[in-house]
Design goal:
Blueprint: H1 12-23, E1 28-30, E2 32-33, E3 37-38, E4 43-47, E5 54-59, H2 63-80, H3 85-101, H4 103-114, H5 118-138, E6 146-147, E7 154-162, E8 165-169, H6 177-188, E9 192-196, H7 202-218, E10 226-229, H8 233-242, E11 248-252, H9 255-267, E12 271-275, E13 280-284, H10 290-302, E14 312-318, H11 322-334, H12 354-369, E15 373-376, E16 395-398, H13 404-407, E17 414-420, H14 423-431, E18 435-436, E19 438-442, H15 446-453, E20 462-465, E21 477-478, E22 481-482, E23 489-490, E24 499-507
Parallel strand pairs: 1-5, 8-9, 8-11, 9-10, 11-12, 13-14, 13-19, 14-17, 16-17, 19-20
Antiparallel strand pairs: 2-3, 2-10, 4-5, 6-7, 7-24, 15-16, 18-22, 21-23
Helix pairs in contact: 1-4, 3-5, 3-7, 4-5, 4-7, 5-6, 10-11
This protein binds nicotinamide-adenine-dinucleotide.
């Protein structure tokens, strides 16, 4: 008997009611905010992938709301840029405390609206809390360098200033953490933000905006430091892209979306921070601890139902351990408990909607047309036990790296498995895709692991040894190369993206000396 048959029935209504009460959500919510909430026009209906039932509605921002939010954001920036950074950090610390207080309710809301399991929903809120802690420390560490001037009596240094209004465009799969990564760092850097969330997850955006508004008001700061504009990418998103008052657009989503944003914002020479699709590979060497590799593969490929930018999509296994590893993988896949993401026994919830299921089915058909072979799963799960039409069984498929479908990111739990003979061959295949986000090698052999981490190794923004492709910590700079967009968010010195660098020369001497020894006198 498959484990998924053990799926528990959970009555979602009382759970939803309690969460809505705690977070101040209603059946119909305003979707624009700049301190005050603005009504907007038509509503987006937010539907839970758990059972296909509407959770609530959010009114979309129109032209009027857009104009009001941008004008107030500009005003708020003029004030906020003048608040000392450590004081801005105190506000972020208070935000972290509020998130701690509402962690359980917010984590549940993420599960209800997006479908990830509760443990991962809670993990997403923890990520928001962690970045608040990081940003608080950062607020006292926005360091510039001092250089030695070649001119006597001159001092030279660089300093960092805020940019202005930062437009945040976010994806559905981390409906609130991506906002936090950006907001916390952008805000201590002295910027104000205007957030356009995914239309698939507007309720989580409203709930988090209510929390940050509460914190800003308690500190007597303008609410337009953290504004919200719910609306479609083509309407509200597009306005932000062409708006010269917005010097930086930080966008997380598909490569297709990022390519468009890069062009439109680039046209006005605005700045973009792009966090786009991945096609991440995990390599299992014959020198690997296979048990570790197995756990990492399962979490990487099945976690968040394969809907993480860092999900493991390609698995390269050395021929000497291929059969053994595959057999173990089939056994663990067989035991994956699929079902209601709020049940503590569930490992894999639904995909975000029925459309995602049909995209997955299309990818599997294309794989088979190209000569790939499904070894396990892939089919939609239907019937009373799986309401709403968004459940699937995760798929394992033998493939070739050159297949067109393998070269693309399908945002679903499909794992393409391939065999290799040498570590050089595995690294070459891993790099031979358009994307460059996350990568990992399982090996206990120094020559292999150091090769993987060298300039001859992984070409990705993230390279891991004996840990999987997914599940990054906030302390590092997060992002990837090639079609992943080149942006870096979150930790390390990613804050520099949100500030403008200014090089300063101060002449404290009595003569005007020119650089490079140039003489220019009458
Ligand atoms: P998506 O590209 O469909 O949408 C992302 C956001 O872009 C949404 O808010 C959408 O409304 C907006 N958008 C779309 N067209 C726009 C336009 N013309 N102008 C302005 N905004 C526009 O992506 P999705 O399905 O929500 O998310 C999944 C994708 O996101 C995957 O490709 C995943 O790999 C990627 N992702 C990347 C990272 C990363 O850090 N690299 C993190 C999470 C998700």
């Amino acid at each position: 008997m498959r484990m998924e048959r053990m799926m528990e029935k959970i009555d979602l209504k009382p759970v939803q009611d309690a969460v809505f009460r705690e977070l101040g959500l209603k059946e119909e919510n305003d979707g624009a905010c700049c301190g005050r909430w603005l009504a907007g026009g038509d509503s987006i209906s937010s539907v839970s992938p758990i059972d296909g039932r509407p959770l609530g509605r959010v009114r979309k921002a129109g032209s009027e709301e857009y104009a009001a939010v941008l004008a107030e954001a500009r005003e708020a920036f003029l004030l906020w840029r003048n608040v000392p950074a450590p004081r801005r950090g105190e506000m972020i610390r208070a935000l972290g405390d509020e998130l701690r207080r509402h962690k359980d309710a917010l984590g549940t809301l993420v599960s209800l609206e997006m479908g990830k399991i509760k443990a991962e929903g809670d993990g997403e809120i923890q990520e928001m809390i962690d970045i608040c802690d990081f940003a608080l420390g950062l607020s006292r560490q926005l360091y510039g360098k001092t250089m030695h001037s070649e001119r006597p009596g001159n001092r030279m240094y660089e300093q960092w200033h805020p940019l202005g209004i930062v437009g945040l465009i976010t994806s559905f799969n981390f409906p609130v953490a991506v906002w936090a990564w950006n907001f916390a760092v952008a805000a201590v850097a002295g910027n104000v933000t205007v957030w356009k969330p995914s239309s698939k997850t507007p309720l989580t955006a409203v709930a988090v905006t209510k929390i940050v508004q509460h914190v800003l008001a308690a500190h007597k700061f303008p609410g337009a430091v953290a504004s919200l504009l719910v609306g479609s990418g083509g309407e509200i998103g597009e306005r932000l892209l062409t708006d010269r008052r917005v010097p930086l657009i930080s966008a997380t989503g598909s490569t297709r979306m990022g390519r468009h944003i890069g062009c439109v914002v680039g046209e006005r020479l605005g700045r973009t921070l792009l966090e786009l699709g991945g096609n991440n590979a995990l390599i299992v060497s014959e020198h690997a601890d296979l048990s570790l590799a197995l756990q990492a593969t399962l979490f990487g490929a099945v976690g968040t139902s394969g809907q993480r930018c860092t999900s493991t999509r390609r698995l390269f296994v050395h021929e000497a351990v291929y059969d053994r590893f595959l057999e173990s993988l089939l056994q663990v896949y067989w035991q994956v408990r699929i079902g209601n993401p709020l049940s503590p026994h569930t490992l894999m919830g639904p995909l975000v909607d029925a459309h995602a299921v049909s995209v997955m089915q299309g990818a599997i058909r294309r794989l088979q047309d190209e000569g790939g072979r499904v070894l396990y799963g892939g089919e939609p799960l239907l019937g009373e036990e799986y309401p709403g039409g968004a459940y699937v069984r995760p798929c394992l498929a033998e493939s070739q790296n050159r297949f067109q479908v393998v070269q693309e990111e399908t945002f679903a739990p499909i794992l393409y498995i391939m065999k290799f003979r040498s570590i050089d061959e595995a690294i070459a295949m891993q790099n031979d895709v358009p994307q460059g986000l996350s990568s990992s090698l399982f090996s206990n052999r120094l020559q292999e692991t150091e090769l993987f981490l060298s300039a001859l190794g992984s070409d990705c923004g993230i390279a891991n040894i004996n840990t999987g492709t997914s599940g990054a910590e906030i302390g590092g700079a997060f992002g990837g190369e090639k079609d992943t967009g080149g942006g870096r968010e979150s930790g390390s010195d990613a804050w520099k993206f949100y500030m403008r660098r200014q090089t300063v020369n101060v002449n404290w001497g009595t003569a005007l000396l020119l650089a490079q020894g140039i003489r220019f006198a009458m």
